[in-house]
Write a structure and sequence with these properties.
The structure holds two protein chains of two kinds.
Chain A (H helix, E strand, L loop, with lengths): L6 H8 L19 H9 L25 E5 L34 E3 L9 H13 L29 E6 L2 E5 L4 E5 L16 E7 L2 E7 L19 E8 L5 E9 L8 E10 L13 E2 L9 E2 L29
Antiparallel strand pairs in A: 1-3, 1-10, 2-10, 3-4, 4-5, 6-7, 7-8, 8-9, 9-10, 11-12
Chain B lengths: L1 H29 L13 E5 L35 H9 L1 H4 L12 H4 L4 E5 L3 E6 L5 E5 L17 E7 L2 E7 L19 E10 L2 E9 L8 E9 L29
The chains are: A mainly beta, B alpha+beta.
Chain lengths: ~325, ~260
């Protein structure tokens, strides 16, 4: 049994491997060729899902019922704007193909698929990208491999995740980190408080959950290419759910005049996973509940990371495990 | 006349006392928050006021702990003779060895009485406990499912299965790692730890939390602790994420030189 909580370390080690699937144990797939499995798991296009009325099931408090397990359908965090190209320094086999034969950039606006960085910010991103494969300074180590929360937006293409809903809340349980989105207009935290996941307020507009994320600390990089926002960023997320309940698009607009020359938008398609799907150690990390004589029911086991991520039983990469980190 | 008057007053007071007691009982039974299915609704943000996390046992104030009356039935923990030296060593080295100092998962029951808020999100099928401290998330399943048949690798927060006994949520928790402590004083457990929790409302804003600890490797007999959990009713209160294990390296991001 693969230990879910060790995946960040495994994924870090796997950055030395050419294919993202090497980070996971492949599911039992019968006669399906591995290459085809890889394509269906890692490649793909972005379906069109329009904002509009919600025709699907609702919870007693009126929210569209979108509870359950979800994961992205295109690649992972190796490369933000060329998702199937592989991480910096480790080009995937698909990099030999023409660009239109790989999945599109996550940047859906501007149309060129590039983040509209200001020159200084672009230089910082490229410096990280150049140094990722052989980090010589702390700042070149991907924070995620040190068990930092994935944050916005990387959490949405870093393993699968579960959405649970409650009156007044949508909660999202990621592989690394948790977001509790309040569905009210309660005052936000003071702007001096900066957080890995920011501070979220959301509302439902038909089939779309609209969330404004403030109080970002800018620290969780978008992927191994070093893309980033700063602590001045405000992100508007739109979770546009297909009423069939099987897919949604995460469409997030990033506003940060200190890093970008104009607001830009990322689009990340996701699909639902249910008991009809095989668990696969990446998109769908669940276990069968023990309930003899009843139908299969999957449940999410606990996630840990820093407790066992180091080479000798625990700790974050580059951090001594013997020294106290806090004094409270 | 005076005697009669005084007798009447006594009788009146007695009657009033009965009425108040009846009223209080009625309130605790009927006025607590409930879910649509009639079960008590523990949704909200909770935190203990107790000194349990400093030391479960009775203790005078010391440099690193305020005084506390203790939260354990009978006062002291029933250590086995061969398990007590480890506790004493933990106590001596507590400034370095307490797993909390690395911001690691605190385990059960410690995560409940660590002095920081946690939020309960409740559905019919489960209660989700999101703790502000670190990255701790525990699901208490209340859908009739059982512990796994076998637990190949244990859990830092255990495997929690809850049932309702009237208005009390009874949670059976097994499958632990042995690396968590029970408090800052170095009280500890082994991987044989078995916890039975009882969650019940005292009033709409107070939960009585009881945990019975069974661990034959460490203790001669099961023992029970009790703390009250208070609803955080501060204006607009919300959890503020506290991934404190990132503190040693967060200053390097995004793209910051080490000396900054």
């Amino acid at each position: 049994m693969s230990r879910l909580s060790k995946l960040p370390l495994l994924a870090a080690l796997a950055s030395a491997c050419p294919l993202p699937t090497s980070a996971q144990s492949a599911p039992a797939t019968g006669a399906v060729p591995p290459e085809q499995v890889m394509q269906s798991r890692w490649g793909g296009t972005v379906p069109v899902i329009h904002s509009g009325e919600w025709a699907g099931p609702r919870l007693p408090d009126g929210q569209p019922d979108v509870q359950g397990h979800w994961s992205n359908t295109i690649a992972n965090h190796n490369n933000f704007t060329d998702p199937e190209a592989g991480p910096p320094g480790e080009p995937s086999r698909k990099l030999d193909l023409s660009r239109d034969q790989r999945s599109p950039s996550r940047v859906s606006d501007p149309p060129d698929g590039q983040i509209p960085y200001l020159p200084e910010a672009r230089a910082l991103q490229q410096e990280f990208e150049r140094n990722f494969a052989n980090p010589t300074q702390e700042k070149y180590i991907e924070p995620l491999v040190r068990c930092a929360p994935g944050g916005v937006p990387k959490s949405f293409y870093w393993h699968g995740y579960e959405i649970r809903q409650y009156p007044g809340y949508v909660a999202i349980f990621f592989n690394a980190g948790t977001r509790i989105i309040r569905l009210d207009n309660s005052p936000r935290l003071h702007p001096s408080i900066k957080l890995w996941n920011g501070d979220s307020r959301g509302r439902w507009e038909g089939n779309t959950l609209v969330v404004e994320v403030t109080n970002n600390n800018g620290k969780p990089l978008f992927g191994r290419t070093g893309d980033f926002m700063s602590e001045n960023a405000i992100v508007e997320e739109r979770f546009i759910f297909d009423p069939d309940g099987k897919r949604y698009n995460y469409v997030a607009t990033f506003n940060d005049p200190t890093v970008y020359s104009r607001p830009w938008t990322a689009t990340i398609p996701a699909r639902r996973y249910t008991e009809a799907d095989s668990t696969d150690g990446w998109h769908y990390e669940v276990v069968a509940a023990n309930r003899p004589g009843q139908p299969l029911l999957h449940e999410r086991p606990e996630r840990i990371c820093v407790e066992n991520n180091g080479p000798f039983g625990g700790g974050a990469v580059g951090v001594p495990v013997s020294e106290p980190i806090i004094a409270r | 006349m005076i005697l009669r008057w005084r007798g009447g007053a006594l009788a009146a007071a007695f009657t009033l006392g009965i009425a108040v007691a009846t009223s209080a009982a009625a309130q605790s039974a009927n006025d607590i928050p409930r879910q649509a299915n009639g079960k008590p609704d523990f949704s909200g943000i909770w935190q203990t006021l107790s000194e349990a996390d400093y030391d479960l046992e009775p203790h005078a104030g010391r440099r690193d702990a305020p005084p506390g009356p203790g939260v354990v039935d009978g006062g002291l923990l029933p250590y086995r003779d061969d398990a007590r030296p480890q506790k004493e060593q933990n106590f001596a080295n507590r400034a370095e060895d307490d797993p909390r100092l690395k911001c690691w998962v605190l385990g059960v029951p410690r995560s409940v009485y660590y002095p920081a808020p946690f939020q309960i999100l409740q559905r019919e099928r489960d209660l989700t406990l999101v703790h502000q401290f670190g990255h701790q998330v525990r699901t208490i399943h209340t859908n009739g499912t059982l512990h796994p048949e076998t637990i190949e690798e244990p859990f830092w927060l255990g495997d929690s299965r809850g049932t309702w006994e009237g208005d009390t949520l009874v949670v059976d928790v097994v499958g632990f790692y042995d690396e968590t402590w029970l408090d800052r004083a170095g009280n500890y457990h082994s991987s044989d730890l078995h916890v039975v929790e009882r969650w019940e409302f005292v009033d709409p804003n107070t939960i009585s939390y009881t945990a019975t600890i069974e661990d034959p490797q460490v203790y001669t007999q099961p023992w029970t602790l009790n703390v009250l959990l208070n609803r955080r009713r501060d204006k607009d209160f919300q959890l503020i994420e506290d991934y404190c294990f990132t503190l040693p390296y967060e200053q390097h991001y995004p793209h910051k030189d080490s000396e900054q």
